[in-house]
Amino acid sequence: MELSKVISGKLLSEEILKDIANKVSDINKSGKRVPSLAVVLVGEDPASQVYVRNKKNACQKVGFTSFEYVLAADTTQNELITLVEKLNDDKDVDGILVQLPLPKHLDSKIIIDTISPSKDVDGFHRYNMGSLALKDPNVCPCTPHGVMYMLDSIKTNYFGKHAVIIGASNIVGRPMALELMNRGATVTVCNSKTRNTSELVADADIVVAAVGLPNFVQGDWIKDGAIVIDVGINRLADGKLCGDVDYEAAAKRASHITPVPGGVGPMTIAMLLKNTLSIYLKSK
Fold first, then answer.
1. pTM tops 0.90, yes or no
2. What is the pLDDT of residue 2?
3. Residue 122 falls in the annotated catalytic set
4. Which residue, 6, 18, 37, 278, has fewest beta-carbon neighbours within 10 Å?
5. Confidence of residue 126 (pLDDT cuts 50, 70, 90)
């Protein structure tokens, strides 16, 4: 496969992190406090533990201060709200991230809305989602924003293009639709009840798969020359990772495609740190 077809989130994210690190170095040299991110993890979900570790390592890489709060799985809603409110009031904390999913007894909507919109680095607060919907974004959700950065890196022209998003979650699908609409694309969002997903994908100039099912999107669904963005990351029985798209088959038709791993994943963390730096600079 031609390497020019592959949009490497790994390489793009390294460029972004290098730029952030240079800016943080300048802040440090000026004698000012460097940006900081507080990450809250509730319970012992293995995948969440990995994500939190990756975020902590990325903070270290760019020179951010990171605060980590690991709470027991039986932490009450009030206890978590109290911690978030304390972080809202802490002038040494720029960004707050509560790692999802939360244990079932906690209401993630209430917790997310407790985070101050000006410290909501994930961009999930209803104020930030609403701002994105009104085409006046404040803090953008990290994964969709990372996808837009990837599309921009190959100089995508969005006007008149049909973008099909598979998956309608608040974390990826919905904000992804808003990002693409804001750039002038015609957007279709498929959910689990969509009857003709394969036909819709076959008409798409841009495909964003975020459904969480291994190899769900078949190669022969892809239109020749389409751009394929695979947000999914799934672990197979043999331990290997794969996306939501049958990569080898889709790559034969796509003009550009993202790999799994090394595609959208690294961009999500890069955008998280970009959001944190942006919030820090706005508060100065």
1. yes
2. 66
3. yes
4. 18
5. very high
